[in-house]
Amino acid sequence: MQSSLTRASVLVLCAGVSLLAACSDGTGPNASGEVGLGFQLATSQSATSAQSAPGTATGAGVAQVSTTPAGLSITSGTDAIVITRAQVVVRDVKLKSAAATCVDDDDDDDKSSSSRSGTRSSKDDDDDDDDCPSIRVGPYLVNIPVSGADGGRVAVMVPEGTYSSVRLSVHKVSSSDSADLAFRQANPDFRNISIRLEGTYNTQPFTFVSDVNAKLEMPLTAPVVIGKGGDNVTVTIDMKDWFTKPTGGLYSPGAANTSGFVQAKIQNNIRNTFRAFRDKNRDGRDDDR
User: Fold this and answer.
1) How many domains does the chain have?
2) Domain with 30 in it
3) 63 has pLDDT over 50
């Protein structure tokens, strides 16, 4: 069934994004609808997921976030981060069917273990395939608007059906893998990293980079039904929770560029701050809440 939301009405994140795989869950090979998939920075005012340590002052572990003309502002205690540019490399973005029985072709336990240690290779991603209806895009560079506004969206055709989760890989660009060659040539600043931020920490400029590799699955708060018109799915990233200390204040993004506690803490935080939901109005708000 053709979507009422035309491909021309959705901004494409990058030229050349291709539909690598799509299979039906029983509605037939030609039954499909269009979905727009986009990324935004979360601007919620809630406390971080980290718990304050016993005996800490009231308000510890809580950060405030707001959009400003300069960029995304994060404050906690006397610390302030302003993010003026936010870029993430993603690949293998999938809408997973609620009806399908998904069986991984490989051992997810091994993958998740190596993901937590930040040592997964692009070969790990290539070997990771699900025996279920899915789409794949990327790798591509997501430039996330720091204003909190909706950015460009990938418009893809997917089989009609009901989808219950979004799956993606935050992808470290390999300096040697031929599969990443074209991406490296187009984005030379992303050799051996997956994330790059620019901004200020307590008014001092910083550039933050991370080589985190992570396969993430995000349940939708309510299933997305494709087949009776177009729809949009938004993935939000809560960067506030990347840098907030459990005891109050903010980690210095620049300090996270070298190995140590701060880097390990922020990498772990990154893996826990992606969320997906149906967002028909593309306003960063969950339509089902």
Assistant:
1) 1
2) 7-41+63-278
3) yes
